[in-house]
Structure formats: C-alpha cells, structure tokens
Specification:
The complex is a heterodimer. Chain A is α/β, with parallel strands linked by helices. Chain A has one domain (about 5-205): 3-Layer(aba) Sandwich (Glutaconate Coenzyme A-transferase). In chain A, about 15% of the residues lie in helices and about 25% in strands. Chain A has 4 helices and 12 strands; from the N terminus they run H-E-E-E-E-H-E-E-E-H-E-E-E-E-E-H. Chain A has helices at about 5-15, 85-95, 130-135, 200-205; strands spanning about 20-25, 45, 50-55, 75-85, 100-105, 105-110, 115, 140-145, 155, 170-175, 180-185, 185-190. Chain A is globular. In chain B, strands 1, 2, 3, 4, 8, 9, 10 and 11 form an 8-stranded mixed beta sheet that branches. Chain B has a 3-stranded antiparallel beta sheet with strand order 5-7-6. The mean pLDDT of chain B is about 95. Chain B is an alpha/beta fold. In chain B, helix 5 crosses helix 6 (about 180-185). Chain B has a domain at about 10-100 and about 150-230: Glutaconate Coenzyme A-transferase, CATH 3.40.1080. In chain B, about 50% of the residues are buried. Chain B is built from 6 helices and 13 strands. The chains are: A alpha/beta, B alpha/beta. At the A-B interface, helix 2 and helix 3 of A face helix 4, helix 5 and helix 6 of B. Chain A: Keywords: Plasmid, Transferase. Chain A: InterPro entries: 3-oxoacid_CoA-transf_B, CoA_trans_fam_I, NagB/RpiA_transferase-like. Chain A: GO terms for molecular function: CoA-transferase activity. Chain A: It comes from Cnuibacter physcomitrellae.
C-alpha cells in the first residue's frame, strides 16, 4: 500500500490540532486521533452525549455505565471535565464553540459538501445521530478518510452522489495519500505523503487540483 | 405541602393514555429509565409515539415496549445500533413509523417545547434530505431551516437523586436528554436511585428544578454505585463482572 497507515494518518491529524483546542472526534476511525494527541499540550475532547474533558477507556473493572462516549463505549472523565445536557452539548456545536471536529466520509465534494450518514441503499435503516450537527458546527471540519473506496472510486468528487450531511462545511480532507484543503477554487493539495505525485492524485480523483503545490 | 414522590413505579405511570406522546430519556443505555418503561409495559398503554434518541437496545427497556407492538411511531436520531434488532425488524416489516431528526435538532425541538418557543431556525440539516420541504431563510448570509417544538404528554426520565419537591441531580453522561425532556412534557415522571430530604440537595448542584417535575419514584441504587459512590465491577450493561479469585 502506498501512503500512510490509519495510525500514521491519525497521528498526522493530531499534530495539526493546536494547544487549547476543543475537539470532537467522530465515531469510527477519527477516534484514533485521540491516541496521538501530544501530551505536552492541553486539548479538550467533547462528546455529544454531554462531556467535555473526555479521557481514555477505563480498566475493565472500572467501567461505569453512566460514563460513555457518542459511540456508547466506556470512557473516563479527566480532572477539569464538565457534564451537561444535550441542548447545551449541541449548542457547543451549532453555536460555533468547538474548534475542530474530525469526521469520516463516504464522499466530499470540491465545494466542501459532506456525505457521511447514509449511502441511500434501499432497505437500510436510516440513522443520523449528531452527524449533521457536527458537520456544520465546528470552526474547522477535518475529514479523515481513504482517498478511494474499496472498489477504487475517488471519495473526493465534483458533486456528492450520496445523501448530504452538510453543505459547504468541510475545511480539509486527510487521506493516506495526501492532505487537501477545500478552497473557493476547489480541492488544493496541502501535503503529499510517501511518493504520491500531484499528477497521480489528479488521475485518481479525476479532479483538477490546480497548480502544483 | 408539596410532595411529588409516589410509592412505586405503577403509581408513577398511572393514567398514561393510549395514543400519548412520550419522551423517553437516555442515550443508548445510559440514563434510560428502564424501571419506568417496564412499568409502562405492565400498565398497558398502546398506540404510543415515543421520542427518544435511540430506538431501544437488546430486548429490555424501550426495545421490550417496541417488541410488544405498543408503539406506533418513533421520533429519534439514531435508531440503528448494533443491538437494535427489535426496532430493525419492525421497521423493515413496515410496522413502525420513523421520523428521523438530527440529534441537535431533536434536543433543541424538545428544549423549545419546554421553553415556550414556537419554532426556531437552525443551520443543521440545511440542504439535506432530512429538511426537504421545510421553510428556509437566509439570516446574516447563512441558510437556516424552520424546526418546530416537540411537545409531549408524558416524559419518562432517570436521575440520580431527588427531593420531594422534585429537584433533580443527575450522574455523568446519564444526564443527556433528562433536563430538557423534564421541561417539555405535560406530566414529567422521574425515576431516581434515592429520594433525599429537602435541603439535602445542594441548590448549586440542582440541574432540574422541581417546577418541571410531577412525579418522582425511587427505584434503588444501580449495581455500580454504593451510597452514590462509584464502585465498579460491572460491564457496560450494568451486569456484574464474574468475581475474581483473591490472589
């Protein structure tokens, strides 16, 4: 495989989160970012079900069923943590108080539209949770995803074909091959990983990525 | 004298009519008022509309109510979970209606109902399938959609402690929807681990003032707590872990 592993990518995203940031990590791969947050700075993790200052998973005999994250897994509360109800929790998102959120994606469009909650497949049971609130509710929305689907199609697209989660909400996309900023001109390459080239990315995505960085 | 305490869960859910809209607290299993739901199952009301973040876990609580075909409609944000087989089956068979609402809009619609707000414009869901057909407005250059309050006949919620006036304190992330749901129901019914004397709850720590609460019932401590202190020794479902041999 060319490019970064999932863990390396999580580490790369973690290194872009500044000291003092309030951060929400979406369910799935984005939660791995928590494993690589630098220890010498203070980053406060938010979970939508009512906790700021979320810590890592407890030891098995210290699991507290009243203390879980958005993925309904057992977590801990760090010294300085705060609990709050759901309307406050989503006010933190909708009100623009979170600095960064990291989400997974099925597709991201060149205008920053995000599709990550439904493939629209017939028979699937729809469930959205906090995805739409998170998508529009952080100062910066980072997407963490593979560049291509399992069948080789680009997840970076001109227009999303899957149902949208949010319109024009994504700031940056981190993939195993490159990091892309969403700009008024479309995707622009911020960083290349491994031996990936600009031309290769244009070939894989089928998108005009502008001048070489 | 104000005394909102009731003797048992049967009395707590008495009078819930067929066709009622019922808010049910909890996020996953945390804060789900399982004892009140069990009492509602025994009480027999049917044709219910349930408003809750999830649509039940495993075979207990909300899932058990659904399994008995007592729920006509669910308003929730995230019905599909690894252990939501009861809802999944009913939904696929077309035997339950679903209104899917983004979680923050669900919370704010409940909050609005409790706060006497007739509707609000939110950016969440703009341009998505979940707000299709709703009134849109551009305010200060940003797109918003109009959402309406969700008012309910009854609210079933869980808290840690109450006094007889109905003041409530919660515990950790089991708080979740409890405080807003308490405000939005005509009759708010609360189960707590214990009812304490007036004055025993620190007024600075009260999250839900008793004005929002109608009935309170004590259901006993959870297995992972001892006198309100966390002692662990359970899994996420609250089931005690196998005891380890002393070494």
């Amino acid at each position: 495989m060319t490019g970064l592993s999932r863990d390396e990518l999580a580490q790369r995203i973690a290194s872009d989160i500044p000291d003092g940031a309030y951060v929400n990590l979406g369910i799935g791969a984005p939660t791995m970012v928590a494993n690589y947050l630098p220890r010498d700075i203070e980053i406060i993790l938010h979970t939508e079900n009512g906790l700021l200052g979320m810590g890592k998973a407890p030891a098995p005999d210290l699991v507290d069923p009243d203390l879980i994250n958005a993925g309904k897994q057992a977590v801990t509360a760090l010294p300085g943590a705060a609990f709050f109800h759901h309307a406050d929790s989503f006010a933190m998102m909708r009100g623009g108080h979170l600095d960064v959120c990291v989400l997974g994606a099925f597709q991201v469009s060149s205008t920053g539209d995000l599709a990550n909650w439904s493939t629209g497949a017939p028979g699937a049971i729809p469930a959205v949770g906090g995805a739409m609130d998170l998508a529009i509710g952080a100062k910066q929305v980072f997407v963490m995803t593979d560049l291509l689907t399992k069948s080789g199609e680009s997840k970076l697209v001109e227009r999303c074909s899957y149902p949208l989660t949010g319109v024009g909400c994504v700031s940056r996309v981190y993939t195993e091959r490159a990091v892309f900023n969403v700009t008024p001109e479309g995707f622009r390459v911020r960083e290349l990983f491994d031996d990936t080239t600009h031309e290769e990315l244009e070939h894989l995505t089928g998108l005009d990525l502008g001048e070489k960085a | 004298m104000i005394d909102r305490t009731v003797a048992d869960v049967t009395e707590a859910v008495a009078g819930i009519e067929d066709g009622s809209t019922v808010l049910v607290g909890g996020f996953g299993r945390a804060g789900q008022p399982v004892e009140l739901i069990d009492a509602l199952i025994a009480q027999g009301a049917r044709d219910l509309t349930i408003v809750s973040n999830n649509a039940g876990n495993g075979d207990v609580g909300l899932a058990a109510l659904l399994a008995l075909r007592r729920v006509r409609r669910v308003i929730c944000s995230f019905p599909r979970q690894v252990d939501s087989w009861v809802f999944d089956e009913l939904y696929r068979a077309g035997e339950i209606e679903l209104e899917l609402v983004p979680q923050g809009n669900l919370a704010e619609r409940i909050r609005a109902a409790g706060a006497g707000i007739g509707g609000f414009f939110t950016p969440t869901g703009v341009g998505t399938d979940l707000t299709a057909g709703k009134e849109e407005r551009v305010i200060d250059g940003r797109r918003y959609v109009l959402e309406h309050p969700i008012k309910a006949d009854y609210g079933l919620i869980s808290a840690l402690r109450a006094d007889r006036w109905g003041n409530l304190v919660y515990r950790e992330t089991a708080r979740n929807f409890g405080p807003i749901m308490a405000t939005a129901a005509t009759t708010t019914i609360v189960q707590v681990d214990e009812i304490v004397d007036l004055g025993q709850l620190d007024p600075e720590a009260v999250v839900t003032p008793g004005i929002f609460v109608d009935r309170v019932v004590a259901v006993g401590s959870r297995p992972w707590l001892e006198d309100g202190r966390f002692v662990g020794g359970v899994d996420l479902e609250g089931t005690p872990l196998p005891t380890q041999e002393a070494s």
